[in-house]
Amino acid sequence: MDILFEYRFVIAFVIGFILFALFEWEKTKGLITKLMLVAKSMAKDYILKSGEAQEKWVMIKAYQYLPKWITTFMPETVMRKLINYLYHMAKDYVDDGEINNSI
User: Fold this and answer.
1) How confident is the model at residue 4 (pLDDT cuts 50, 70, 90)?
2) Which DSSP state fits 74?
């Protein structure tokens, strides 16, 4: 009976961790998307001159605002890939209201 209880505890813990990670992932994507919109606004006001400057600004701010346990495990290369991925997804959505790789 104790073995059955331990397996239930482990399964419940794993499911809880996965759900927590999914919610944090959604919050992370939302934060980075908001930062990208602010960077685009700053580019229109001629504060950020190039796309590279915008990407760097978003990366710096994301590291400031994201929880430390996320940024500890996310090196700059992964953060850049995530920013580029979300940027292309946003561009794809804006062109026709769907995410269908029609850029």
Assistant:
1) low
2) -
